[in-house]
Amino acid sequence: MSMSVGDKGGEDAPMSEINTTPLVDIMLVLLIIFLITVPVVLETVNLELPDVAFEVTTTKPENVLLSVRSADTDGDGLPNPESTACEVYWGQTPVDSKQLLERGQNKLEQLIEDIGGVENITEDNFPEVHIRGDVATPYQCIGGVIYTMQYAGFQKIGFISEPAAGSGTVSRL
Fold it and tell me: What φ, ψ does residue 53 adopt, rounded to 5°?
């Protein structure tokens, strides 16, 4: 606290000192507020992350199996990781993006016809798309396949991978 003592120019002279007490009080209150709220803001959601393992996938005959890799641009029969071109296979048949969309739409139309209409579609009889992507494949290739299959009408799209050596299986609950 500050107090003016003495006579510097009389009572009518303006006071030239600034009272900093309210400023210090406000700063202390803000400091206390920040000390209380920062731990609340930084708190994260408690999660139990899964163990590193793989889930056994049940393959149904109506599922679509796709393989995606970089194109073989150097002619050695292997995918070229530097290539931006993509190769997509429906089963063992190579397809381009237009054929992929047409085949996906035709597959769903045939399914709807086989089960007797849209009203008979359930989660159990709706096909899934299983994508096997080469490790050196650029994201744009796999992302394009995902987008195309979603546009065709597929709702479930999953990835097939090789399990790590020594990992176990996780059973579904």
Answer: -160, 180
Instruction: Let me know: does 77 contact 62? Beta carbons within 8 Å.
Output: no
Give whichever of 19-33, 42-56, 119-133 has the largest mean pLDDT. Answer: 19-33
Q: Please tell me the pTM assigned to this model.
A: 0.60
- Percent of the chain whose predicted confidence (pLDDT) is above 90: 20
Residue 150 has pLDDT above 70, yes or no: yes
**Residue among 145, 151, 63 at smallest CA distance from 107:** 63
User: How much of the chain is helix, strand and coil, in % rounded to 5?
Assistant: 35, 15, 50
Distance of alpha carbon 133 from alpha carbon 137, whole angstroms: 7
Residue with tokens 């650029």: 138
Q: How many CB atoms lie within 10 A of CB 138?
A: 18
Do residues 84 and 140 make contact, with C-beta atoms less than 8 angstroms apart? Answer: yes
User: What sign does the dihedral 15-20-26-29 (CA atoms) show?
Assistant: negative
Spell out where the chain has E strands: 54-55, 64-70, 86-90, 93-95, 129-133, 157-160, 169-170
Query: How large is the C-alpha radius of gyration of the chain?
Result: 33
The most confident of 64-73, 94-103, 112-121, 125-134, by mean pLDDT: 94-103
Question: 142: burial class by Cβ within 10 Å (0-12, 13-18, 19+)?
Answer: buried
